[in-house]
Amino acid sequence: MFWSGDAGTYSDAPKAASAINRIGQFWKPWFYKYLETIQSTGSCTEYIPLRDYYHRHTSGMFWEMEEIIPFGNHPVFRFACGWLMPPKASLLKLTQGKTIKRLYEEKHVIQDMFMPVDTLSEILEVFEEQFKVYPLWLCPFKLPQNPGLVHPKQDKTMMYVDVGAYSVPKVENFQAKKALKCVEHFVCKKDGFQMLYADNTLTREEFGEMFDRELYDNVRERYGCVNAFPDVYDKVGRHA
Questions:
Q1: Do 103 and 97 form a contact (C-beta atoms < 8 A)?
Q2: Cα(108)–Cα(68) distance, rounded to whole angstroms?
Q3: Confidence label for 76 from pLDDT (cuts 50, 70 and 90)
Q4: What is the CB neighbour count within 10 angstroms for residue 185?
Q5: DSSP letter (8 states) at residue 1
């Protein structure tokens, strides 16, 4: 799905009540599956409440829920249990055994990379080579030149794009750590950023190269946090 000023407009009220699609209701199909039906039947015009639009991917966790509950988009399941979706991540982790956890680590990709928009074609090729995961999440945004861990290396606000991959990789003989390391190396070389909710293989030095620690370290030093609180890398780095 693409959203732009030319393809969609904001409206205070629909022309007809029947044109409203409240896609946030629990019995509604997963949004990306709904888009597939539109693609196969042709175009349509409808009105989506703003809150529903913001949460259009919530019930299906983008397209991850199909991997967790393959029958989750079935109408019977949606009407009976759709109000339970999506399950809390903490609950999923609580019910994970060692085998399932290892399976996710070795045979599953959940990654978001923030890349300068002029490197989009290159990062897509890298994702294809290392992950071969589709569909991909592409979300352009402005990254301001403000102090902090994440800002453009150039001294100006720049357009970036979030490239997200969430699924089972289709690469033959997939090696998770090796593939992720290749992607991280490319992202760092092109002045991109890896989102730290996901697994990473960054060393402490690589982390410092990818993220600007100057302000962060100054604040920790100024307010006596160095010995009081763990470093951000120690919270997210596998090598810590």
A1: no
A2: 12
A3: very high
A4: 14
A5: -
Phi/psi at 165 (5° precision): -125, 125
Residue 126 half-sphere exposure toward CB, CA atoms < 13 A: 22
The pTM is what? 0.84
Q: What is the pLDDT of residue 79?
A: 95
Q: Which residues contact 49 (CB under 8 A, 6 or more apart)?
A: 20, 22, 24
User: For residues 92 and 68, is the Cβ–Cβ distance under 8 A?
Assistant: yes
3-state SS assignment for residue 142:
strand
Residue 122 to residue 120: CA distance in whole angstroms: 5
Residue 7's pLDDT is what? Answer: 64
Averaged pLDDT for residues 129-134: 95
- Going by C-alpha positions, the residue among 114, 130, 123 that lies closest to residue 176 is 130
| Per-residue pLDDT tens digits for 33-51 | 998 888 888 778 888 999 9
CB-neighbour burial class of residue 109 (10 A; exposed 0-12, middle 13-18, buried 19+): buried
Q: How far is CA 157 from the centre of its chain?
A: 22
Q: 155-167, pLDDT tens digit by residue?
A: 999 999 999 999 9
CB atoms within 10 A of CB 207: 23
